[in-house]
Each structure stands twice: as structure tokens, then as C-alpha cells.
Design a protein that fits this description.
With 304 residues, the protein is mainly alpha-helical. Helices cover 73% and strands 4% of the residues.
Length: 304
């Protein structure tokens, strides 16, 4: 009898492994092999001089990594990336928490809640390139925003939004906020709807205010989702590319203050400098891993 059961378990396990085969094949072909290839290329001098003459591949060890840190560009572009991510993430998480709390509160009796949930999620479905082109047209020197501001008497001449560091970074951050706050709201709302209502009822019986309930019950229970949102948003922020690329025509203007790490990587790949591109990709992978671990550990420590 036991042998029969063992045979059934083995048979079921075999089907599990068979269903895993497509995932393993795709992972190895499109993720593992490129990752290993990128790390391998980072130790070589390999580029095209003037776009025509191939130089290398020649093994040079850690020289590509030294070149990245010698110029200091990587620190500047990392700073640009983090500033724009933080400017977009802070309002994103605050607005998402507020909306999720409203949508999940049965006492408010909001009408048309599913409709509004769908509407705030819609910007997430729009391509970032289309979003960037829209904002480029809106905030251009002759665009409708400048026309409105001049008609209101705020400015006497068009304000060059993309020629000032603050406004250019703010535009990139605002676009990222608009595209992602709906997705964050849905995630937080799902977490809030999963909280046992008896906890709220017990708190109300004890005389807790709505603010105390939110900070003492809702937020602590939402912590795992908050960690997930923060880490995924951080990874997405470090991979910020299409919005600033299109908005500034790939220049990161003004004076490269909106040039992100991925835009910097793209310049190396566009010039076919595979060695430096590989080194920068590896550094980006390491930075993402370190920051994700810091966020995870920080949230773990605050739980204790």
C-alpha cells in the first residue's frame, strides 16, 4: 500500500517538473545566459572605434570598473536617478494610502467605486513614451501650459521647463507618479480589504480614533505589502529610462541633471562599447541588490 502511494507521489512530482520546463528554458535563454555574458564582457576591452573599426575583445580585468569610478559620472547619474525616484515615490505612496483608505472605508459609502478604481489605474496602461511625448508638448515653450501661465499674468514670457534643473526633474518625477500611483493604490487596497474587520470593531469599542486605527492597525498589517511596493518601485526607479530619454531627447538636459544610470548605459551600448556597458550593467545589478536588501532589513528592524 505504501509503495503504491509512493508511486503516485513520484508520478505527480514528475508532472510538476514537466510543467516547469518552459519556465526553465525561457529563464536560461533570456536571463541567465545574458547575465553571464554581461559579467564576462565587463572584463574585456571591446568597442568599435569611430563606429567602424572593432577593438578587442581584449582581457583587461577590472579596468572598466576603475574607469567608471575614476570619472565620477556614475555617482552623478546615480544621484540624478535617486532624486527623481524619491520626488515621485513620496507623493505616490502618500496619495495611494489616502485613496486606498477611502475606497476601503465602508462608512464613506462611496458611489461608483469600481469606476474610479479603473480610472486611476488607466495611466499605468499608457506607454511611457506616449506619456513623455504628451508632457513634452504640454510643457514646451509654445505649449498650452505656458500659454495659460502667460494669460494669467504669472509669466511675461514662456518659462523653459526643460532648461531648469528643478522643473525638469519635477516633470520626470510627476510623470512617474501619475503612471504608478494607480497600481500602488490597487495593491494597498487589496491589502486593506483583507484585514479582519473585527480588529476595527474592537478598536472602535475601545474608543480609538480613525487616525489611531490607521496608524496602529492598518499600517502595521500592511507592512509586507509596503515593503513589496517600495522594493519594486526602487527597482523600477533605478531602471528609469523612457520618460527622461524622450523628454530630454536623450541628453539629460539641463547639463545632464536628468541623465539616469540606464540612459548612461544606453550611451555605451549605442556607441557599441560592450566592455563599459557590461561593467555598468553589473554595477547597476549590485546597487539594486544592495538597496533592496537595505530596504528589506530596515523594515524588518522596525517591526521589532
Amino acid at each position: 500500500m505504501n509503495n503504491k502511494k509512493k508511486g503516485n507521489v513520484v508520478r505527480y512530482n514528475r508532472w510538476g517538473y514537466i510543467f516547469l520546463i518552459p519556465f526553465v528554458v525561457v529563464f536560461v535563454a533570456f536571463q541567465l545566459v545574458p547575465l553571464v555574458s554581461t559579467i564576462y564582457n565587463s572584463f574585456f576591452e571591446h568597442y568599435f572605434k569611430n563606429g567602424l573599426t572593432e577593438v578587442g575583445p581584449t582581457f583587461i580585468g577590472l579596468e572598466n570598473y576603475k574607469s567608471l569610478f575614476t570619472g565620477g559620472d556614475i555617482f552623478k547619474y546615480f544621484g540624478n536617478t535617486m532624486i527623481m525616484w524619491i520626488l515621485g515615490f513620496i507623493p505616490q505612496i502618500l496619495v495611494s494610502l489616502l485613496l486606498a483608505a477611502w475606497f476601503s472605508d465602508p462608512s464613506l459609502r462611496l458611489k461608483g467605486r469600481p469606476f474610479f478604481q479603473s480610472v486611476i489605474y488607466l495611466p499605468n496602461l499608457i506607454m511611457a513614451s506616449a506619456f513623455a511625448m504628451l508632457f513634452f508638448a504640454l510643457f514646451s515653450d509654445s505649449g498650452p501650459i505656458n500659454s495659460m501661465l502667460m494669460n494669467m499674468g504669472i509669466f511675461s514670457e514662456p518659462y523653459k521647463f526643460l532648461s531648469h534643473t528643478g522643473s525638469a526633474r519635477a516633470l520626470v518625477a510627476f510623470m512617474n507618479f501619475l503612471m504608478w500611483f494607480g497600481n500602488t493604490t490597487i495593491l494597498l487596497l487589496a491589502g486593506m480589504l483583507g484585514i479582519d474587520t473585527s480588529l476595527y470593531e474592537a478598536a472602535e469599542v475601545d474608543g480609538a480614533t480613525a487616525t489611531q486605527i490607521f496608524f496602529r492597525i492598518t499600517l502595521p498589517i500592511l507592512r509586507p505589502i509596503m515593503v513589496f511596493v517600495m522594493i519594486t518601485s526602487l527597482i523600477g526607479g533605478l531602471q528609469m529610462f523612457d520618460v527622461p530619454q524622450i523628454l530630454t531627447n536623450g541628453e539629460g538636459s539641463p547639463t545632464r541633471t536628468t541623465l539616469t544610470l540606464i540612459m548612461f548605459l544606453n550611451k555605451h551600448l549605442y556607441s557599441k562599447n560592450y566592455g563599459m556597458g557590461g561593467a555598468l550593467s553589473v554595477m547597476l545589478f549590485i546597487i539594486t541588490g544592495i538597496l533592496s536588501i537595505i530596504v528589506f532589513k530596515f523594515n524588518q528592524a522596525s517591526e521589532k
